[in-house]
Each structure stands twice: as C-alpha cells, then as structure tokens.
Specification:
By secondary structure, the protein is mainly β. It has helices spanning 4-15, 202-205, 292-301, 388-395, and strands at 48-61, 79-95, 98-109, 137-148, 153-155, 167-169, 172-180, 220-228, 232-239, 258-269, 276-290, 313-330, 334-343, 357-366, 376-385, 427-439, 442-452, 463-473. It has a single domain (4-21, 40-473), classed as Beta Barrel (Porin), CATH 2.40.160.10. A hairpin with a 6-residue loop joins strand 10 and strand 11.
Amino acid sequence: MRLLRPTLVIALAALAVPAWAKNPESPETAQPPGTSTTFIDHGRTDPFWAGAEVNSIFQAHPSFGAPYTGTNSLHPGGEVAISGLLTVFSAYRPHRTTEIILDAEMAVGGGLSGALGIAGFTNLDVVRNPTLSNEPYVARFEIHQMIPLSSIWEPNDDRGPISTFAMVPRHRLELRLGKMSTADLFDINPAGSDSHLQFMNWTVDNNGAYDYAADTRGYTYGLIVEYQGPFIEARFGELMLPKVANGIDIDFDLTKSHSEQLEVEIKYCRKPGWAGTLRVLGYENFANMGSYQEAIDAYLKDPTAQPDITMHRHVGASKFGFGLNVFQELGGIARAFARGGWNDGRNESFAYTEVNDTFEIGFDLAGKIWRRPFDKIGLAFVTNGISDVNREYLRLGGHGFLLGDACLFTDPTCTRRPSGYLNYGRENIVELYYNVHIWRGAFAAGDIQFVDNPGYNQDRGPVWVFSLRAHLEL
C-alpha cells in the first residue's frame, strides 16, 4: 500500500482537473446513457485530458514434463503469479494542433517464472527485468504537433490518451518528440494490440520478430514523423536503444546506438463494416549487440565454460527485419487479423523478445450477437522460430535475456541430453479469451493459452496457462 499511495494521489489530482477553455471548433458529442466504456466522460472540447487505467492479471499453470530445467527455463512445477499495472494519463492542448502528453505508471507483481522460459510470454504487462523497483516512473513525456495539409477537418476516430484532438485535418503531418512507446504507433492492429482488453501474449499483441526500440519497461526517446491521410499513412521513427540487451538505461549516443523504423499503411477498403488495412514495416537497429557465431566459436575453442554472448558485443552491431500486418472487418460483427515477421538473427535479441521469425492469425467476435455489444471473444494462433545460429547457441548451453534451458556447469546436479540443451522445435501458441464488460469502465476477462515447445524446446512442455484479468478504465 505504501507504494500505491504516490500514484493514487497523482490519479486523484488528475481526475479533479476542471473542464474549461472550450474549443468552439470541436463540438461536444455526448455518448448516449449506458454506452460509455470509461468511468469518466472525456469532453471533446476540454483542453485537458485526464484519465487512468488499472490492469491486474492473475496467471497459473499446472506442472508439465521437463527432463531438465535451467536458469532461464519456465518452472515445470505448478505455479501462480499476479501482476498489476497502473497508468495515469494526462495531456494539455495549448492549441488546436498541439498537445503535450505526460503519463505516469507503476508496475507491481511479476510473471510466471520471473517472465522467463517462453519467447511468446503469456503476460504483456510484466516487466522483463524482475529486479526493477516498483516505484512510479514517467512512462511518456512528449510533444505532439499536427501540421495541417488540408482545409477539411474531421472527427478524430482514434481519439484517446495519445491523441486527444477532437478534430483533425483529413491530410496532415504529425510530429512526436520525447519519451514514448514505439508500440503506440508501429505495428498496431485493432484486433490484436491491447493486452488490457484483448489478448495477453507478447507475440500475439505484437510482432515477435520486431525487436522494437524500448527499454525493459517498454519505453524509449526519439522523434516520429507521420503522414496521415484517408487511404495511406506512413510513419518514420528515429529512436534510441538501451545500453545493453533488456536494459533500463538508454544509450543517448546516437553515433553508436539508434534504431530506424519505417511503416506504410494502406487502407485498401474503407466500406463501413468491411474496413481493411495492410501495414508493411521495416526496421534496423544499431547497438552494442553480441554475435551468436562469435560466442559459439569461443566456446568450441574452450568448452570448459558456457557460451556467453555478452562477452562478444560490438558497438554499432546491427539487426534488421521486416513485418506485415493485416486487419479486416467482417460485417461489423467479427474482425480477422494476421502478422508475419522476420529478422536476420545474427546478433542477440536486444529490446523485445527472442524471436527471429513469426507468423500469427486470429479473429475476434463482438458480443452484439448475444446482446452483449461490448463483450468480445478472441482466438489466435502464433508460431515463433529462431535462426540456425541462435538455436545452436542455446543448444550448446548459452543464455539469452529470456531463454536458455542450460543449468550452470558448476551445478553438480546439472544434466542434459547427449546432443545438448535444446531439442529444437518451433514455439507454437494458441490463445483464447473472453472479455466481459461489467459496467462503464469495468471489465473482466478469462483467458487460456496453450504453449507447445516453450523456449523452442521439444523436451519441455507443453504447458497450459490459465488467466483472469480485471481492468478499470477512467
């Protein structure tokens, strides 16, 4: 409770901000009674935006078969974990084309096995470094500037905490500068990007092969430039990476470490109820990354120690990759989506998760058919893989920041297969959820995930993960 108090004070103070300085060019459009999905009705004319989200996920898995278990493995014995995430959103619009965003956040609890042992981990809310403090931190602090390219202004269909403008030009440039989340803007899919109301798995909500710029909490600093139009959108980001893989400290030396991403979005159908969008993404990271091949070569010369990729890092080492993201509405009742991704897999996974290629497909169905219009049910399948050199590194006993079924060589109980610590198989995941709208901004969900070959190891698993989620949205 002591840790909760500072953030709760911030939340209550933010929610008490008065509504004033109305914008006459953005007419108020109140929601009909009983249709709000937030506890606060966010006035479209207010220059201030204030709100909050509280998300808590309980997860459990029963015991599963595993002939050996390492320091980065999912524990084979049954276990439970609970996580909590509180985010306070605030924004101020000093001008109809300018907003300043400041968000505070606090993460508590953790994931199963310390969020280790599965590349497509089962809870996107958990911090990937369990040693971090539970104290509140600044999540976003950015300036968002629109540059109109059209005299026609339209309602903002994507209005929310990261874009609070009520009206936007039909054609425009948007610039964002400051601390932000890459995943707020790149690789978005309306049916598979929100771990608070949709799926929970890392590689269902995001493209697992997109090693996007972020510290271990999921945030970075940089500049993003977007063109927004009715049929085509394009965005480019120059963003910063952490000093070490899965690190919390950002490397601000752009001559040694930086990340570029370019995404083009084609709205191939805009028919109501049948909207469809294709997003094509490319990215390249430059950072102090380790080489899998160098770590393997060093081990083969001296097999008395485990392969250690952290001993073979090079400033300015690169990783590049691509992604495809498709979203299709189906008559205003259901939505289908798919993603595919690939990266070169030569150097260590650095910022997101340990995936070098991925494919997923899924859908969700609105509850209006059974008279529950804000309920949703979703089903997705994702298959993840790693490069040949990555799997050889793990087979010989190496560890990444998430994976590695090898136990320490100094452990007298350490055992392995004659062929090594990895009997490789693709990590295949199926996730099913049902999200219930209780009242206004209160939601609850049940979720089941089946993970085959956790950590790409056919010797371990499969494992079932059962989840309950509570969500409040203000």
